[in-house]
Write a structure and sequence with these properties.
The protein is of the alpha/beta class and 191 residues long. The protein has one domain: Rossmann fold (3-Layer(aba) Sandwich). Helices cover 39% and strands 14% of the residues. The chain contains eight helices and five strands. Strands 2-1-3-4-5 form a five-stranded parallel beta sheet. Helix 3 packs parallel to helix 7.
Length: 191
């Protein structure tokens, strides 16, 4: 694990107001992933609203991850480090859920790169229960989810603020349910 990457994350957090750092003990862990750079994500009000909403639940830890800028990407490649969350600098593979927020269709191309950096198979059919559940929502998916459908376990279509509370309740209630069982039940959720 590269100290340079961790230091970049610490500096980004130091310049923020509103970052939420929680203890992981016994909580559902969600990494909200924006498939573009930090600056682009932080200018997106939808992304910020979802982050705030997820962290409003006391039994959910929501952290963030982004496509690294080219200088940091080189450090990831040089050090062999896996993509880390901003808040706790944990590998994305440590989370229960990866939730992509996709606002622009051009960002579809960055999703496989994020999987590669995280060491997670890109296709849903190649992932088993040892990997996080991968879901996505956002304006681009509301318009056309098909280009990335095979990469995702769940797709949220609609307004995140309306869909997320019931989806998060559902995920917390499933506990250690088998992935196939969880996905079979999820198709009955609105959105």
């Amino acid at each position: 694990m590269s100290w340079k990457i961790k230091e970049n994350h610490r500096q980004a957090l130091a310049g923020e107001a509103g970052a939420v750092i929680k203890n992981w003990g016994g909580k559902l862990t969600v990494c909200l992933v924006y498939p573009n750079h930090y600056a682009t994500a932080m200018s997106n009000l939808g992304f910020q609203a979802v982050y705030s909403l997820c962290n409003s639940f006391p039994d959910i830890v929501c952290e963030r991850a982004f496509l690294p800028p080219s200088v940091e990407l080189k450090e990831y490649q040089k050090s062999g480090s896996r993509l880390l969350s901003l808040e706790s600098q944990r590998p994305l593979s440590d989370f229960d859920v990866l939730a992509f927020s996709v606002s622009f269709e051009n960002d579809y191309l960055n999703i496989p790169a994020i999987f590669d950096l995280a060491g997670i198979p890109p296709f849903a059919s190649d992932r088993d229960a040892s990997f996080p559940l991968v879901m996505a929502g956002g304006a681009a998916l509301f318009l056309n989810p098909e280009p990335v459908a095979e990469l995702l376990d769940l797709i949220c279509v609609g307004e995140g603020e309306a869909i997320l509370p019931s989806l998060l309740d559902f995920l917390r209630a499933q506990g250690s349910a088998a992935r196939t069982e969880l996905l079979a039940k999820a198709v009955h959720l609105p959105g």
